[in-house]
Amino acid sequence: MSRRLDFSARGAAGEALFRWTCASAATLLLAALGGLVVSLAIGGWPAFRKFGLGFLTSTEWNPVTEVYGAAGPIVGTLITAFAALLIALPLAIGISVFLVEFCPRRVARPIAVAIELLAGIPSIVYGMWGLFVLAPWFAEHIQLPIIMSAEEGSFVDRWFAGVPNGANIVTASLILAIMILPYMAAVFRELLLTVPPQVREAGYGLGCTPFEVIRHITIPYVGQGMIGVIMLGLGRALGETMAVTFIIGNSHRFPGSVFDSGSTIASTIANEFAEATSDMHSASLVALGFVLFVITFTVLATARGLLARAAR
């Protein structure tokens, strides 16, 4: 009897220790996140105090005159991230549906492993490939023919104007799409594998075609999870740094066309932080980091809101 009580006491102690360890880990994470936000806000406060709302609306970024406006990098970040998502999303869904529904199992598994490996390649590798391979090819075979064929002053001339060197908003979006595509496809595939076979077979038993089963049964079954994956992919595209820095052209002004150079918040910080010699320049870059944090947090919070709304 006493031995049983001893085991029970040791089990209760172990349970309490386990709960305390988990609570400590969660608290540590929240404390680190809170410290990050506070340090960014304090570090960027001199820029917010001097420029006010103009820091977010102005496109002038001039370290010589100590005038900083973040509108150009903010717009570049949003344009490249959403364009990358628009490119990657249908491809990721198509790849995952093919691997789960149509591809033979002995072939699907190696392809799925290859996609998961692609998701782990460092971003700088994608950036170098984009700089030395994609950008020259894009400039020679797509950008230059479009520019040469456009009539001066026409709609095509205005929307596709730019220096034909391949470093522009479109190629940066393509690189981002290539980077987030393996990650989204791999997670989509895992979600589709959670659909019970009986659910699909019930659809086929009612006479549905494969397309109808995927559209009306499979996709709605994992809809909530797909929203979360989409938002996480967008969050990764918003914060990507090195690959975009290589290929976007690094211009702080508003992009005037789809082939124009631009910049993102992350690329601006990566390019200039080591060269920031004045306090206001450093504060402006930290303020950019705070703005990026707010944008990413808003995207993820929106995802959680959509998931909660779908659950109701």
From TrEMBL:
Q: Which residues form the ABC transmembrane type-1 domain?
A: 74-301
Q: Which residues cross the membrane?
A: 20-47, 67-100, 112-139, 159-181, 225-248, 285-307
User: Which InterPro entries is this protein grouped with?
Assistant: MetI-like (IPR000515), MetI-like_sf (IPR035906), Phosphate_PstC (IPR011864), Phosphate_Transport_Permease (IPR051124)
Name the job this protein performs. Part of the binding-protein-dependent transport system for phosphate; probably responsible for the translocation of the substrate across the membrane.
| Keyword presence, Cell membrane | yes
Family statement drawn from the similarity comment of this UniProt entry: Belongs to the binding-protein-dependent transport system permease family. CysTW subfamily.
* Protein name, per record: Phosphate transport system permease protein
Q: How does it sit in the membrane?
A: Multi-pass membrane protein
* Domain of life assignment: Bacteria
Where does the record say this protein resides?
A: Cell inner membrane; Cell membrane
Keyword entries, A-Z: Cell inner membrane, Cell membrane, Membrane, Phosphate transport, Transmembrane, Transmembrane helix, Transport
The answer to keyword Transport applying to this record is yes
Q: Which gene encodes it?
A: pstC
Fetch the PANTHER family from UniProt. PHOSPHATE TRANSPORT SYSTEM PERMEASE PROTEIN PST (PTHR30425), PHOSPHATE TRANSPORT SYSTEM PERMEASE PROTEIN PSTC (PTHR30425:SF1)
